[in-house]
Amino acid sequence: MQGSCLCGAVSYEVDEIISIKFCHCRTCQLAQGAPYIAAGGVKREHFRWLTGESLVTRYESSPGKHRCFCSRCGTPLLADRANLPHIALRVVTLKEDPKLRPTEHIWLNDDCPWTLDSPDLPRHPAWPTV
Ligand SMILES: [Zn+2]
Ligand SMILES: [Zn+2]
């Protein structure tokens, strides 16, 4: 499976995703600009940059944990903790359905109260028309 950032300069390939979690931690919220993210575990040897690796900026958000994003368009692509055998892929950057489904939500202590599921809110397939 392949994925890329928004501008397309950085692309990658993964062989297999082990599992997917939704992470609500505060650093993910700030790093992604979103209430929570989908992180996919991928063994290091199952991940390859295809293009634009020189544009990838690595930000150390906590000791030993680097968040990697495209320096041109800002898309977060993965988090990499050197002492772990896998990286945490930002699953939403894949170009295809990974087939695997998320199995858990973590760091709910950091959740924003306004992101609670609101099934009653209007839902639109795209930008709402007035
Ligand atoms: Zn980009
Ligand atoms: Zn997180």
Description:
The protein is built from one helix and ten strands, in the order βββαβββββββ. It is mostly beta strands and 130 residues long. The protein has a single domain (2-111), classed as Metal Binding Protein, Guanine Nucleotide Exchange Factor, Chain A (Beta Complex), CATH 2.170.150.70. A seven-stranded mixed β-sheet has the order 6-7-8-9-4-3-10, covered by helices on one side. A three-stranded antiparallel β-sheet has the order 1-2-5, with no helix packed on it. The longest helix has 7 residues, at 26-32. The radius of gyration is 15 Å and the shape is globular. The model has no long low-confidence stretch (mean pLDDT 95).
In short:
It is built from one helix and ten strands; from the N terminus they run βββαβββββββ. The protein has about 130 residues and is mainly β. A hairpin with a 4-residue loop joins β8 (about 75-80) and β9 (about 85-90).
